[in-house]
Amino acid sequence: MHCFMDRTLTHFFEHMESIKELASKIAYNRIFEISITIVILINSILIGVETYTSDPTIKIIQQIILYIFTAEIILRFIAAKSIKSFFCEGWNIFDLLLVLIGYVPETMVANASAMMALRVLRVFRIMRLLRTAKEIKIIVSVLVKSMTSMFYNLVLFLIFVYLYAIAGVSMFKLPDPSTLKGEQLQKYELYMEKAPNAPSNSPDPFGDLGEAIFTLFRELTGEDWTDLRYNHITASEYGLISVNSIVITTYHVSWFCLSAFLLLNLVTGAVINNYQMAIEEQKDKKERERREKREKRKEERGK
What pLDDT score does 4 carry? Predict the structure, then answer.
């Protein structure tokens, strides 16, 4: 009886190993990978088409695509060395979540905002295109790895933003027109005619700390930063702010140079550095795989 159980277990494990090998051959086959990429592309196009029309045929095709994705994720799960190795791969977790979201029926969601969130999450299937090419996967992994270094760059950036925002509010905040009288009110009205805010419905760019931070972000993108300088010089000429043109120019030029050139280049440098490291890791991984294959061949020849 004991021998019978041992033989049964041995056959079972051998059978499971052969299924794993077959699943691995299919899942990592080049033709299968290209086929899945084509399905992802069709799915992405249909998601766009669904924004124009609600056709039952498209929904049926999308359901078939969902079943294909389910079969693919099951194949990859079976082909994985272990359950741990499957879930250690971030792309597998991402794909699994997208597949599971696809099976959540909209009828289960009563709240309109929750239904909208569900639809938006389904649109994320397009993100599966990121894993179709090795180069794109490297770029995504680089961006993820760069998050730590970019966090410290962000902290440095926010320190400077806060510093410049407080300085901007202190120097360039325009007076409240409701508190002005006589000549000062006339000067304010003349100023608003000559140098109105852009766009016209926008508040004072340095009226408060929040608006000042947003204004600095606008300047960082290169939008209207020279217009802001000229507006502040005009406000200075009308006596609405107590700052001369040299200080105004120094403030705007120094912020633009600091943010657009120095701080953004720090982020770029961090990403490029991590990209080079990722390329080196990829080369080392390929080299290890080649060595393992060579060793396997030697063992097989020895047998």
Answer: 44
pLDDT of residue 11: 55
Model pTM?
A: 0.61
What's the number of domains the chain is made of? 2
Q: Tell me: do 99 and 20 sit in the same domain.
A: yes
Contacts 24+ apart (CB under 8 A), 68-71: 68/36, 68/39, 69/39, 69/95, 69/98, 69/99, 69/102, 69/125, 70/99
Check which CATH number belongs to the domain holding 228 and give it: 1.10.287
Is 166 in contact with 209 (CB distance < 8 Å)? yes
179-250-246 Cα angle (round to 5): 70
Question: Is 22 found in the same domain as 56?
Answer: yes
In this structure, are 158 and 239 located in the same domain?
yes
d(CA 195, CA 134): 52
Which residues span the domain enclosing 70? Answer: 2-132
The span from the CA of 41 to the CA of 109, in Å, is 28
Same domain, 152 and 221: yes
pLDDT digits (tens, 9 = 90+) for 91-125: 788 888 888 888 877 676 666 566 666 666 667 76
Query: If you ran DSSP here, which 8-state letter would residue 178 be given?
Result: G
Q: How many CB atoms lie within 10 A of CB 302?
A: 6
Distance CA 197, CA 202 (A): 6
Q: Specify whether 163 is located in the same domain as 269.
A: yes
- Looking at residue 3, what is its pLDDT? 52
The domain spanning residue 8 has which CATH number? 1.20.120.350
- The CA-to-CA distance between both ends of the chain, in Å, stands at 33
Parts of the chain with a pLDDT under 70: 1-16, 106, 108-122, 125, 129-135, 300-303
DSSP letter for each residue of 49-65: HTTT---HHHHHHHHHH
Phi, psi of 241 (to 5 degrees): -130, 145
